[in-house]
Fold this sequence. Notes:
The protein is mainly beta. 10% of the residues lie in helices and 34% in strands. It is built from 1 helix and 5 strands. A 5-stranded mixed β-sheet has the order 2-1-5-3-4, with no helix packed on it.
Amino acid sequence: MATLQLQVNGERRELSPAPQHLAQAIEQLGHHPRLVVVEFNGLILTPDRWQDQPIQNGDSLEIVTIVGGGS
């Protein structure tokens, strides 16, 4: 089974099976697509582009989780 190595929020992560596109990688990392903002290799991509964005070894992701609430 193929694996894919990424930098995620500054840490090396290995995903198996290797995702083919960004949407699969986000899902494998356990994030809900409506609750994150993703920077892919230095570019912020909107969720409608994730399915079309191929992903490969060495790509870099910065994932920010949106948290509601406060007082």
